[in-house]
Specification:
This protein has about 130 residues and is mainly alpha-helical. About 50% of the residues lie in helices and about 10% in strands. It contains five helices and three strands, in the order αααααβββ. It has helices at about 5-20, 25-30, 35-40, 50-60, 65-85, and strands at about 100-105, 110-115, 120-125. A hairpin with a 5-residue loop joins strand 1 and strand 2 (about 110-115).
Length: about 130
């Protein structure tokens, strides 16, 4: 079974280690106890969206970047699981957005049109 909390913890740990930062530094900056952050990184605790936001801010990483990396890890884990079970691998439903460019800004800063390889996606600020 693939556990999302483990994948998320692995990605958070890699992000922190890439920056050469300690658990203590990040926990202090995120205002999260060192022990709890450690448990999140080890996949032992489910992190709330508020906690993830605080950790991402402390790591200076966008939550969307974090989730994209988690999504990539999940895809790989599902493929490995399918291969191990000898199941046919399903075709992805949506295209991967490796790179996007802002094509236009209409109606002020609240609405941005992003041109993706196959489709246009409207992003509306909340």
């Amino acid at each position: 079974m693939i556990l999302l909390r483990r994948l998320l913890g692995d990605v958070l740990r890699r992000q922190r280690q890439r920056q050469g930062r300690t658990l203590r530094e990040v926990s202090s900056s995120a205002r999260v106890s060192l022990g709890y952050l450690s448990e999140v990184e080890r996949g032992q605790k489910e992190a709330s969206s508020e906690l993830l936001s605080a950790i991402c801010d402390a790591l200076d990483v966008r939550m969307s970047e974090l989730m994209r990396e988690v999504s990539d890890e999940l895809s790989l884990a599902e493929l490995a699981q399918s291969a191990a079970a000898s199941e046919p691998v399903p075709t992805p439903v949506r295209p991967m957005l490796n790179s996007v460019s802002v094509a236009s800004v209409t109606g002020g800063p609240e609405r941005v049109t992003i041109k993706a390889p196959v489709e246009a996606v409207n992003v509306v600020a909340a």
